[in-house]
Structure formats: C-alpha cells, structure tokens
Write a structure and sequence with these properties.
The chain has 382 residues and is of the alpha+beta class. It has eleven helices and ten strands. A hairpin with a 2-residue loop joins strand 2 and strand 3. The chain is globular and about 80 Å long. The structure holds flavin-adenine dinucleotide. Flavin-adenine dinucleotide binds next to strand 1, strand 3 and helix 11.
Length: 382
C-alpha cells in the first residue's frame, strides 16, 4: 500500500477542500440550526463530479479510484457530516450498488441522473422492528403478473424526503435473509408516502425520513439482482458503505484536531496559552493518534477495493475504529474548548453530535465486532 498520494489524488482532495470552504463552511451553523441543508448543494456536488466518483464515465460518472473517493468523503465529513451523508448514500449505497448489480437498462436509467445530482437516491433497509437484524425485515413484495406489490414501513432513511429513487429491500420469499429481494422504486410511485423525522441529536441538516409503502406497484423489471438475493445486495452495499462512513469519521476527527490546536494556541488562562499545559497537550495528542490510526485503516480498505481483494472485514474494522475515534476526538476537542465548546457558535459541539450516530448506523459498533469475530473464529455469534 502506497501512503503517498498521487498528484491526481492530491488534486481531488484539494478540490474537495476548496468546495467545502466555498459551498459548505459558510452555511454549516445556519443549516444545523434550521435542521435543513439547502437542497441546491446536490446539483453542486454533482457538477464538481463528487456524486459520480468511481462510476464509469460511460454511465455519466467521473471515474477515479476508491482512495480518491475516501479523500473526498473525508473532506466533506470535515466540513459537514450532513453533506457527506448525501454523497455516502446517493453515490455510495445506491449508485455504486446499481453499477455492480444493475442490468444495462437500469444503469442507463439511473446512473447518469444520480451522478449529475439531477436525481437523489436513498437506501431503504431498516424498519421500525428490524435494525441490526435486517435479514428479518417485514416489508413484503408480492408478485402479481408482471408486477410486484409492496407493503411495509422503512425507518430512519437518509435522503428519504429528497430521494427520487429508493433502493428498497422487501421480502419476496420465506423467513430469514434468503427471502429478501432488492428493488429500485421511483419515489413518486403511488402508495409511497414519506414523513420527515425531526429532533435528531446530530446530522440535523440531513433529510431523514420514514417511508410508508401501501400497495406500491412496480414492474418486475424494478428487481435489482436476482429474486432472493436482496440481502447479498444490501451487504455488498454496506461493506463499501462502511469505508465511506469511516472516511467521514476521519474528517470529523481531523476537524476536531484542527479546532483544538487552533483554540489551544489562542486561549489564555493563568497568563499563558492553554496549549502550554501538559494535560491539554494530552487531549490534543490523543486526537492526533486517533486521526492517523483511523485514516490508515480507512485507506487500507480503499487499497483492497482498488486491487480487487476481499475488503469486508477490513471495512468493519475501519468503521468500528473510526466511528469510535470520531466520538472520542470530538469529545476531547470539546474539553479543550471548555464552556465555549458547549455553544454552537464554536464547531466542536456539532462535531460531537454528528459523530454520535456513526457508531450506530451502517451496523452498530457491537455488530462490527460480531462481524470481525465471525471472520476470525468462523463462528457466527448473531
Ligand atoms: P437495534 O438493532 O435495536 O440495536 C439496539 C442496541 O442493541 C444496539 O446497541 C445494538 O448494537 C445492540 N444489539 C442488537 N443486536 C445485537 C447483538 N446480536 N449482539 C449485541 N448487541 C446487539 N437505515 C437504512 O436502512 N437506511 C438509511 O439511510 C439509514 N440512515 C440512518 C440515519 C440515521 C440518522 C439513523 C439514526 C439511522 C439510520 N439508519 C438507516 C438505521 C440504522 O442503520 C439503524 O439504526 C442501525 O442499524 C441500528 O438499528 P436499530 O436502531 O434498530 O437498533
């Protein structure tokens, strides 16, 4: 694994850093307080190529390798996790999965629109009764001639109220994960309604929703991958998704480090900058080690993906470590800021609120440990 970025990769990273400085940073506090990111950001993300990264150019994508994708995700996460999540879901979970599992017609229908930001995708796996135990989902899709009729409820769906297409998982067969199939459901299909979820601890600007499906009829051609293979579709999406979440968490930890170092140099107590106190330096150095360790674990996943190697366990390790590190780092940075860290005019409180969900979604920390444990022992504990 080469730890030196190529000129191209460094240029992509700088492009993302500049994008955040121009299009995101000036609005972060306002979007967080208003509980709404400006939807115009989607077209801007598309125009600069960030929604088409790793998608082949023949389908409207901007190509590139997975390390470049992680660099962009990290910079977006450093700026605003709500914006990072738009890309991680619409591109990372939906477009990339479509590129891997879709037939030619499905790819032509959706990929150019998703890559340009003309359309937004969301990923509908979680339900009110099934989160970690996703293979037991209850949403049903019943075959009726050339169509399927879908009924059920999906919970906590990122991009839910914005999405034009839902990558939806529903039961077409018997119990357990073998009875699950994946569908591409246009969000304007009659019978699909969405309810915005408010009051989130973090990611306040992000459009999170509950989706209710009542007699939603889609053609059989909406099936993504073979019938009964939906759980494999979901797990392949989440394995790469965990790399993206990990990269976003590196961004949070890096933002915490930048803020803590800056503030420690400016703030004076007892007649000296607080940076001169050993206990403050300990907080800062703990963050710095977490940033490096989380980034290296994340880059290793990108390297494995780009070389066509198995990466699922490495992705779980990176997601587990980086998400816990993001929470720790934001919390340490808040300590450096003292009381000012508790006020949203300063960045670290939001970093902590945004970081907190990272140990929960795309598989909780406990589930990542079970995945890693299963890979090591050959025994599934869940
Ligand atoms: P549960 O599964 O009920 O878990 C509760 C607790 O029990 C956790 O601590 C968990 O680790 C623990 N636990 C459960 N089973 C075990 C076990 N076998 N061993 C040990 N501990 C266990 N989902 C989507 O499909 N699409 C999205 O876009 C999406 N976006 C989200 C955005 C936000 C802001 C949030 C909060 C959630 C989102 N989710 C999304 C859902 C998310 O993936 C789930 O919340 C997550 O998988 C956990 O499921 P749960 O909340 O039902 O918790």
């Amino acid at each position: 694994m080469n730890l030196e970025l190529s000129e191209e990769q460094e240029a992509v990273r700088r492009l993302a850093e500049d994008f955040v400085a121009r299009e995101v940073a000036p609005h972060v506090v306002a979007w967080d307080r208003a509980e709404a990111v400006d939807r115009a950001i989607v077209k801007k993300l598309g125009a600069v190529g960030f929604l088409g990264l790793t998608i082949p150019e023949e389908y409207g994508g901007s190509g590139g390798d997975h390390l470049s994708y992680c660099l962009v995700t990290e910079e977006l996460g450093r700026g605003d996790s709500s914006v990072r999540g738009i890309v991680s879901v619409s591109l990372g979970l939906v477009a990339k999965t479509l590129a891997s599992w879709g037939d030619e017609e499905q790819k032509r229908a959706w990929l150019p629109r998703l890559a340009s930001g003309e359309a937004v995708g969301c990923f509908g796996l979680t339900e009110p009764g099934t989160g970690s135990d996703a293979g037991n989902l209850a949403t049903r899709a019943v075959r009726d001639g050339d169509t399927y009729v879908i009924d059920g409820t999906k919970m906590f769906i990122t991009n839910g109220t914005w999405a034009d297409v839902v990558l939806l998982f529903a039961r077409t067969g018997g119990p357990g994960h073998r009875g699950v199939s994946a569908f591409l459901v246009p969000a304007d299909t009659p019978g699909l309604t969405r309810r915005a979820i408010h009051g989130k601890l973090g990611l306040r600007g992000q459009a999170t929703a509950e989706l209710v499906l009542e007699g939603v009829r889609v053609p059989a051609s909406a099936l993504l991958g073979p019938e009964g293979k939906g759980f494999s579709v979901a797990m392949s999406a989440l394995a790469k998704g965990r790399m993206s979440v990990a990269a976003g968490c590196v961004g949070i930890a890096q933002a915490a480090l930048d803020a803590a170092v800056r503030y420690a140099g400016e703030r004076e107590q007892f007649g000296k900058p607080i940076a001169s106190y050993q206990l403050v330096q300990e907080l800062i150095s703990d963050i710095a080690v977490d940033v490096d360790a989380a980034r290296l674990l994340t880059w290793r996943v990108a390297d494995l993906v780009d070389r066509g190697r198995d990466f699922a366990t490495a992705a779980s390790k990176a997601k587990l470590y980086a998400s816990e590190a993001a929470v720790r780092s934001a919390n340490n940075a808040l300590q450096v800021f003292g009381g000012y860290g508790y006020i949203d005019e300063y960045p670290v409180g939001k970093l902590l609120r945004d970081a907190r969900v990272m140990t929960l979604y795309e598989g909780t920390s406990q589930i990542q440990k079970l995945i890693i444990g299963r890979a090591l022992t050959g025994v599934s504990a869940f």
